[in-house]
Amino acid sequence: MSTNSLIRLKDSIKIIMNDKYPDVRLYIEPNSGYWLFIEREHWKIMDKLIHGVDKETLMKNYGNLFNILSTSRFLNDSADVYLNVLKDKFGLLILHFADGCNLSCKYCFVNAPSGRHNIMDISIAIKAIENMVNTSDNFSIEFNAGEPFLYTGFIEKVIEYVKKHYTGENIRFYVQTNGTLITRKIVNFIKKYEIKVGVSIDGPAEVHDKFRIFPNGQGSFVHVVKGINILKDNKVPFGVLSVITDPDDLRKSFDFFVKKDIRYVKFNILFQRTRTENSNTSRINQLKLAKAHCEIFREALNLYRNGKYIFLSNVIAMLKNIILPEKTYMCMKSPCGAARNQISIDWKGFIYPCHRFVGVKEFSMGHVKDYNDYKNLYLGSQQLRDLLNRNVDRIDKCKKCPFKNFCGGGCAAAVWAKTQDLYRESDTCEYYKYMFECLFWEIYKNRNIILNYINHQNQKEAK
């Protein structure tokens, strides 16, 4: 028999076992991101497929399995498939329109000065938006600064301009705030302009006040909680952003958010730039963090079963990357969404691939007044071309990783900040390996509840 007539598993297939589920194997084809759980009854034929099985015999005795493996591009007679995980459609314009802040957080990566300082000229904001409208008719504008609510007058002018001149486009507005300036007046402002709000709070006072402080060193926790309570009392929906600096604090923060009945939480791993580069906060045990994150996700599922909802945005993004064929979260694509799905404009009008690159001169893409749209920004420099070409198959440590098409290779800005080399692996590699393996087995164990959990969040966001 000719070896050419034999059907084999692709050499790229990875097999992952879990002691808790001794009768199941997880098979992953890393290049496409396809995956299957195979139970023990089929292990013998799967092992034979490593060396090759006659196609006629396989189809006759294992017809259903053959169809599944073929559809999943697991076999050597199916073409290699590399998922098109990135659609070049801009969906987010971040206006980093001012650099002043009323806080002096120890880990601020934009190194925002205290107080009111530089602010974007309204003509720059208008030009930035015009360019975006020429690029996309469906996008969000996020107002970012030091603290945006120091400058409500600017935000109001921009929104009024958009509402007057772009009635046919689908444009939404977001503000990420430290929460300390929220009053009933601010609430009325939020409601008037239908602004979606994210509040930065790291957890209970013992966690939050370690880093989110006023210039005099006083913690800001009491002021943030007061702002959150005003939002809740006035039925303003919001999510929270929590920066992780210590894995031991993750559970404390999760329990705090559950107690406060906060429904949407995004835990961000500390981004190491400027104020954090030489601090103790830069040394985070990634494996310990991943274990803690998996544990609170299991707790979130248990709460969901009992009718209490807390949606962990990062984990849901990872679950979607596993379950959905198209990767929807721009920070877990390969290449990532920087300068493809989003851009950031600093207060001077200079363009950057994303908010984490703001102020990094190597990634300045020119001035908004130099463009009429944002379609060809990558022409500006070699660094930008490298950024838009950075993918998991060009990073040595990622090439053979079974989870490469799920994590996307980590944050390019974080890698650059530490190494000045976009093709180095991310410090979060160990974290994502553990997280994705954990989530695969959670899907095996709790498939229906996880699907409901994700769909419930989607339905809430659509309202």
Q: How would you describe what is shown here?
A:
There is one protein chain. This protein is α/β, with parallel strands linked by helices and 463 residues long. Helices cover 38% and strands 14% of the residues. The chain is built from 15 helices and 14 strands. It has a 9-stranded mixed sheet with strand order 12-11-10-9-8-7-6-13-14. A 3-stranded antiparallel sheet has the order 2-3-4, covered by helices on one side. A two-stranded antiparallel sheet has the order 1-5. Helix 9 packs parallel to helix 10 and helix 10 runs parallel beside helix 15. It is globular. The relative contact order is 0.11. The model is unreliable at 79-87 (pLDDT under 50).
Average pLDDT score = 90
Number of strands: 14
Query: What is the quaternary state of this protein?
Result: single chain
Q: How much of the residues is beta strand, in percent?
A: 5-15%
| Distance, first to last CA | 61 Å
In percent, how helical is the residue content?
A: 25-40%
Q: Structural class of the helix and strand makeup?
A: alpha/beta
State the low-pLDDT regions, or none: 79-87
Radius of gyration: 24 Å
Which descriptor suits the 3D outline?
globular
Largest sheet: 9 strands, mixed
In order across it, which strands form the biggest sheet? 12-11-10-9-8-7-6-13-14
Q: Helical element count?
A: 15
Order of helices and strands: EEEEHEHHEHEHEHEHHEHEHEHEEHHHH
Q: How would you summarize this macromolecular structure in one to three sentences?
A:
Helices cover 38% and strands 14% of the residues. The chain has 15 helices and 14 strands.
